[in-house]
Design goal:
It is built from ten helices and seven strands. The protein is of the alpha/beta class.
Length: about 210
């Protein structure tokens, strides 16, 4: 799959759910519910037990429906294992040069985490496709606007505490964002409330398009 196709799925609609679970038991219906709500890309995380096995299984299951990537990738071994399992993109919580190297080698998009202006600069200079300002909720939109002043070319992809109410304003500034608990609601997952999860995903997608004036 060409890198540009993956980038399009990451940025249109641009809402990428971040999935952290204690097990993979309910992962397939969760992913199906998100896809039904208009989500095109989902980030699993290395913190899920058996993460790479789950990634491989669900890449096959959702081929042509969802693009799955791996997040919380903090070293070369994790990057290589994720790519071997079928990850279409990689995400780190902070700049990790060796993970960026593996993403480049595999020609997949890299979303590199950063927080300080120096880390943002480093992530961008190392060749990250997007910079994940994390955690976003510490300083919010004002901080992003301040970063854009000296770093106008950076494609921001913030994550951390983003809510539905944040989305319209946020999407006037960013290429996309990662959304955790505000979308991937543990209560919905625990109770199997998949239709409600689909409806919530639809709201996030609509808010992103509203923010972009689409």
């Amino acid at each position: 799959m060409k890198k540009q196709h993956v980038i399009k799925s990451l940025t249109d609609p641009g809402v990428v759910p971040v999935v952290r679970l204690n097990s993979g038991e309910k992962l397939p219906p969760l992913l199906e519910a998100l896809a039904d709500g208009g989500i095109r890309a989902v980030e699993l995380t290395m913190t899920i037990p058996g993460a790479t096995t789950l990634l491989r299984e669900n890449c096959r299951r959702f081929e042509g429906t969802l693009l799955l990537g791996m997040g919380t990738v903090t070293d070369r071994a994790a990057a290589m294992a994720s790519l071997e399992a079928g990850a279409r993109f990689l995400v780190s919580p902070f700049p990790v040069p060796e993970v960026l190297e593996e993403a480049k080698r595999a020609d997949v998009p890299m979303i590199a985490g950063a927080f300080s202006p120096w880390e943002v600069f480093q992530a961008d200079r190392l060749g990250a496709d997007f910079v994940k300002v994390f955690p976003f909720n510490c300083f919010g939109l004002t901080y992003l606007r301040d970063l854009q002043g000296p770093l106008p070319g950076v494609k921001f992809f913030p994550t951390g505490g983003i809510t539905l109410a944040d989305i319209p304003s946020l999407f006037r500034l960013v290429a996309g964002c990662g959304v955790g608990g505000a979308l991937v609601r543990q209560k919905f997952i625990h109770d199997g409330r998949w239709k409600e999860l689909t409806a919530l995903a639809e709201q996030f997608v609509a808010a992103a398009r509203q923010g972009r004036g689409a």
